[in-house]
Design goal:
This protein is mostly helical. It has 3 helices and no strands.
Length: 148
């Protein structure tokens, strides 16, 4: 029985033996970092937008949960809001306004996204309808030309 690892190794003609130290100079032999300013800017903008959205979403859900809890305890909606606002310190009131700003930005982004989605679907449907009508008119014109 012959063991294949005991025979001579045959390599392709374009093969070049490199030491481990030489691999650093070839592609893939060392860690290469390609970052440009546009990528950094895109990443930073995405982080900022996502942070504002998450803070806004958290502010809305916490506010609604708090009002629901106070309503379950017997307060009216306005009574719950007055109770919450009246027990705040000046710093707490400032943070409430900031959180409300984040919530407003989140609602704006959500509404804008919903409207853009609706308009996109509407435009796609309108384009399909127009193409269908143009195709039907062309077929009708072709049929009329053949009949004449």
């Amino acid at each position: 029985m012959e063991f294949t690892y005991q025979s001579t190794m045959q390599l392709p003609a374009s093969y070049a033996v490199l030491s481990e130290d030489e691999m650093v100079y070839t592609v893939g032999g060392a860690f290469e970092l390609n970052i440009n300013a546009q990528d950094v800017l895109n990443f930073t903008v995405n982080v900022g937008v996502n942070l504002v959205r998450m803070l806004g979403q958290a502010a809305i859900s916490n506010t609604i949960a708090g009002i629901i809890d106070m309503r379950n305890d017997g307060l009216t909606t306005m009574g719950a809001i007055e109770h919450y606002w009246g027990r705040q310190t000046p710093v707490g009131k400032t943070m409430t306004v900031v959180a409300a700003g984040f919530a407003g930005v989140y609602v704006y982004y959500w509404a804008r996204s919903a409207i853009e989605s609706f308009l996109s679907i509407y435009n796609d449907m309108r384009n399909i309808y127009n193409e269908s009508e143009a195709k039907n008119q062309a077929q009708a014109a072709g049929t009329a030309a053949l009949a004449a």
